[in-house]
Amino acid sequence: MKKLFFAVLGVAFLAGNVVAQDYDKNIYGVRVGLNAAKLTAGDDGHSTTKPGFHIGGVYERLLMPSKPLYLETGLNLTLKGSGGTMSDVRLSALYVEIPIMVNYKFYAGEHWVFYPSAGFYYALGVGGTCDANFLGANDFYTVDSFGKNGILKRSDFGMRFAGTVQWRRFSLSLGYEFGFINVGQDLKLDTSNLEDDDTQFLNRMGVSDAKTGNFFVSIGFHF
């Protein structure tokens, strides 16, 4: 009887290990959500948040057969920027973003999963405009956000954190990302159309030491 008990216990232990190791190796999904982004510049660069959006695909790869540790990446289209008050700048900045993160999944029951994520992102600016009133003129200048005559450098790199709760195939994520590098650059403005200026001249303006920040909330679906 004792041998039978230990035999059953051993089978149960092995079966439990098999179940514990039966994690999906590849997970695909899509996410869409809202941003609350801002841009800070210099020592006194305060900005209000700008509402935006993000949409993209997600891919997760299992890193350890015996543990639910995953590498998470994907491709996002995300709208960031600044809502104003920073040198009277209102900025929209559209990026293509690639996150590279790791997450560890905690299973609660049959259908619920909770997991934190942490890692980095790289973003490439692809569009957007900036309304600026650097010179205190009556009218705002409208310039491109990126490019040779833009107010921002195209590349951004930073850190990204998130927490996700998943039910069956649906998920809800909350997170924050912040840039490491200075994305601001000098901007050449043609001020020939100012009311008090009859001649054409150029002023070197810009946003110094500008860094991005963004709170986001996402809903997702996993295939």
Q: What's the quick description here?
A:
By secondary structure, this protein is mainly beta.
Could you explain how this protein is built, in words?
By secondary structure, the chain is mainly beta. It has one domain (25-222): Porin. It contains one helix and 13 strands; from the N terminus they run αβββββββββββββ. The protein has one helix at 2-20, and strands at residues 26-41, 50-64, 67-86, 89-104, 106-108, 112-127, 129-132, 141-144, 155-167, 170-179, 186-190, 202-206, 210-222. The protein has an eight-stranded antiparallel beta barrel. Strands 11-12 form a two-stranded antiparallel sheet. β7 (129-132) and β8 form a beta hairpin.
Set down the secondary structure blueprint:
Blueprint lengths: L1 H19 L5 E16 L8 E15 L2 E20 L2 E16 L1 E3 L3 E16 L1 E4 L8 E4 L10 E13 L2 E10 L6 E5 L11 E5 L3 E13 L1
Assembly state (oligomeric)? single chain
Q: Class in CATH?
A: Mainly Beta
**Main beta sheet strand tally, sense and closure:** 8 strands, antiparallel, barrel
Order of helices and strands: HEEEEEEEEEEEEE
Helix vs. strand class: mainly beta
Specify the overall morphology.
Answer: elongated
At CATH level 2, the architecture is: Beta Barrel
Write down the domain tally: 1
Main sheet: strand order = 1-2-3-4-6-9-10-13
* Alpha-carbon distance between the two ends: 47 Å
Amount of beta strand: over 45%
Helix content: under 10%
CA radius of gyration is: 24 Å
CATH topology term: Porin
> Mean of residue pLDDT?
82
Helix count, DSSP H or I runs of 4 or more residues: 1
Poorly predicted sequence stretches spanning 5 or more consecutive residues: 11-20, 197-204
Task: Say how many strands there are.
Answer: 13
